[in-house]
Specification:
single chain; alpha/beta; 2 domains; about 20% strand; disordered N terminus; disordered C terminus
Length: about 450
């Protein structure tokens, strides 16, 4: 059925692409290189910035894209995973790739996909590069998937800059069991002659990144903590913030951000420092920096980063999916004035995550924990999650679906927090919208003929 893409519905095609998850995660570049070679190696014609890290890389990519868009450039943005629809992963100036373009590009790759047993992420990455090349973007912002060295996006040979965000424990079965090993895998995106920007804050990891950069003779190495600073930070109950910052001695005052938290301050500094390194090719006025940061979510369509959907009562959605993410979520909500708030928390998590550690954090914030499971094999069952939560002395309820958990949480008329997984967010967004609660942004998805 899938050989005749023109006769298939987009849902059939997406079902086929998602079925490639059965090939799992297969580190290595051989398959993606073969696939891109069959497409004429479109990645070689794209100017790019390549971003890796455990947490924050999606936000850094969003800030980079939003600022560049505000400066008038045509910007490709490749991120993962999506929240609502597959198309979110591939955007140009905030507009998602159309169903028609997905079908057309997938059709050109189908023979190679079947021959090489290519993975879902490899196909998506190749599609992004092909789309950005044919649409002649000025620059593409590329987020790695899980790792760095063996990540499918690491076919980029000459990025203008490579960026490392915060490093933490995640995907240890593929990346290693200590932070130094994980950092070493992330540093695999460094390229000879390309600028390196380090957003990680721990000295021992910064030194490791500097050493890795020296070993392959990268371009200039810049460390955010050494070249940037901020002050006059204020966070607000609607999960926005204001600050002043200084980048390489240049002050930028009165920055408003639609993303909030000390971690987002670091992501903003990382993004603006990165753009300073490409300014000879992509000059940007300070006003464009302010505009991009202020409207990052609406400009790029990348959602779910401690995003306030309602203030009275508070409803907050966050895609945080590991211990470090939840620690930052807790600290940020405290900074937004919710230090004493006890939340009705809708929580679902993948069974390969450190669930006990995550629950220890949520226990401090929870009035009621609404345990649910997204519809995917990796998800921990709601009854298993509820049992573990109760062992942490959390008032926990088990729900059969994410939608049911959302419904009961909203009925409490208490503050509601939704977190634990991108996959949970995907189902939660649909459930919220069915109940009249939507994101305060324009819809970037184009109509498809």
């Amino acid at each position: 059925m899938h050989d005749s893409i023109q006769q298939s519905s987009i849902q059939d095609l997406l079902d086929f692409l998602f079925s490639l998850h059965r090939f799992g995660i297969k580190p290595g570049l051989e398959r993606i290189e073969s696939l891109l070679d069959s497409l004429g190696n479109p990645q070689e014609s794209i100017k790019s910035i390549h971003v890796a890290g455990t947490n924050g890389k999606g936000s850094v990519c969003s800030f980079l894209a939003a600022i560049l868009q505000s400066a008038g450039y045509r910007v490709g943005l490749y991120t993962s995973p999506h929240i609502r629809v597959f198309n979110e992963r591939i955007r140009i100036n905030g507009t998602m790739i159309s169903d028609a373009d997905i079908a057309r590009l997938a059709g050109t790759m189908m023979v190679e996909i079947k021959k090489e047993h290519t993975t879902f992420f490899e196909v998506t990455t190749a599609m992004a590069f092909a789309y950005f090349a044919e649409q002649q973007v000025d620059i593409a912002i590329i987020e790695t998937g899980m790792g760095g060295r063996l990540d499918a996006t690491n076919v980029l040979k000459h990025p203008l800059a490579t960026v490392i965000t915060s490093i933490d424990f995640d995907h240890m079965e593929y990346l290693g069991n200590d932070l130094e090993t994980i950092a070493g895998e992330k540093a695999g995106i460094f390229k000879q002659g390309s600028a390196v920007i380090i957003g990680e804050e721990r000295d021992e990891l910064i030194q490791l990144f500097k050493q890795k950069a020296a070993e392959i003779s990268t371009g200039t190495v810049s460390v955010v903590n050494e070249e940037c600073s901020y002050n006059n930070l204020s966070m607000h109950s609607d999960c926005t913030m204001q600050l002043d910052c200084t980048i390489q001695g240049i002050g930028i005052e009165n920055i408003s951000s639609d993303r909030v938290g000390l971690h987002q301050v670091q992501n903003i500094l990382t993004s603006v420092l990165t753009l300073a390194h490409v300014s000879s090719m992509f000059p940007i006025e300070i006003d464009a920096v302010r505009k991009g940061i202020a409207a990052c979510t609406s400009l790029t369509g990348i959602e779910g980063r401690i995003q306030c959907l309602s203030v009275n009562p508070p409803i907050v959605l966050d895609v945080g999916h590991n211990t470090a993410c939840l620690q930052r979520l807790r600290d940020t909500l405290h900074g937004c004035g919710y230090e004493h708030q006890q939340w009705d928390i809708v929580f679902g998590v993948m069974k390969d995550k450190p669930v006990d550690e995550m629950l220890e954090i949520l226990a401090q914030m929870s009035k009621t924990l609404h345990c649910c499971a997204p519809k995917m094999d990796r998800a921990m069952t709601s009854d298993a999650l509820c049992e573990i939560a109760q062992s942490h002395s959390i008032n926990a309820m088990q729900h059969n679906t994410v939608s049911e958990a959302i419904e009961i949480a909203l009925q409490s008329e208490n503050a509601v927090l939704i977190t634990g997984s991108f996959y949970l967010a995907e189902e939660a967004v649909l459930a919220l919208e069915q109940r009249g609660i939507s994101f305060t942004r324009k819809d970037h998805r184009p109509e498809v003929e």
